[in-house]
Every structure is written in C-alpha cells, then in structure tokens.
Amino acid sequence: MADSGGESAAKIASIYISDFRAFPALAPASLLLDGKNLLAWGENGSGKSSIYRALRGLFSVEAQDISQMCNVFSDPAEPSVKATLTDKTELHWSAAGHPTANVLDTARKSAFLSHTRLIEMNTGRTANDAPNLLTVTVEKLLADYEATMAGGLRRTVGELWAEVNAALSAAYSIAREHVVRRTSRKRSRTPATSSMKA
Description:
Blueprint: E1 12-18, E2 29-32, H1 48-58, E3 80-85, E4 90-94, H2 100-109, H3 115-123, H4 133-141, E5 146-148, E6 154-156, H5 157-189
Antiparallel strand pairs: 1-2, 1-3, 3-4, 5-6
C-alpha cells in the first residue's frame, strides 16, 4: 500500500458495507470506485455518514469495535466492511477482527474530513462562520465540469461562473457611477444656504 520505487500507492477499487448503520444486511452498499475519489451527497438518512464511519473505522490505526455500528434492524447483528484496493489487497473489518497491521501505512496518510473541515479548507472560514455553499460548490466542486452550450460549444462551469461574476461586477460599477452622478447633480442644484448677520 505504500509507495515503493516510484510505484503509485494502491487506491480503493471497491467498498462493500453490510449490516453497518444505515445499510442492513438485506440491502448492503456496494461501491465500485476503480481508484477514483468518492464524493457522497444526499438527503438526511441516505447513508453518507455510514460510508464515512465505515471507511474511517476500517482505516483506523487502532482496532475499532464494529459491534456498536450494526444496523438496528438486523438480527443477529453481523456488521462488516470490506475494501478491495487497486493492487487486489482486501481489507476486511468485522466482529472477527480488524486489519490493523495492514492499514497502518494507509491510516497515517488518510485524510478523512468532515464537510465542515472541507468547507474551512476551501473557503478559509472557520466553523463558526456561515459559508457560501453556492460559491464553494461552483468554484471548487464543479469548476472543472464541462457543460455543452448552444451550438455544441463546451465550457467549464468555472469559466461560465467567472463570466457571470465579471458581468455582475461591471453592472455594479455602472450602477455605482450612475448613483454617484445622480447624487452630484442633486447637490449642484440645491442652493447653498448661509446665515447672514445683520
């Protein structure tokens, strides 16, 4: 799993989660990643946190007790998390054991980040500041996504967003100049009043 002699590190090829929190044994999660990154999103209760906890527990430096993570509707409870890496290594976490020795190197390198920490990293804000999720989504998550425009022209979301911001900035500047000119004209029409002593 570690880099050796210039070879690239193994990545996650697939994940299988059964009888673990949101995923009952009758409806396990089976994710095929082929070494690509995983972005999980969805409504409350859709299983995002369960995937996060499953991977965080599997790639933990210390052995974790999986029995506390079982799906509440399974009887008997047999929670299980398995990851297959791109080098065909299989890591399996269940009541029978935790692959602590096999994941030490990966666990040290892993970066399991909560959505709050991701927002902090991408916006420079702290957890107490309200982030602009639209900006984070458009400028960070979708910036490289290509959209097909009328006539077949392909542009990235980042390019389109930059054009929208430039147009808004130009419109703001024009509106501001208009307000300044209008205010100046009003001031020039208002007669100056001065108090005269008799």
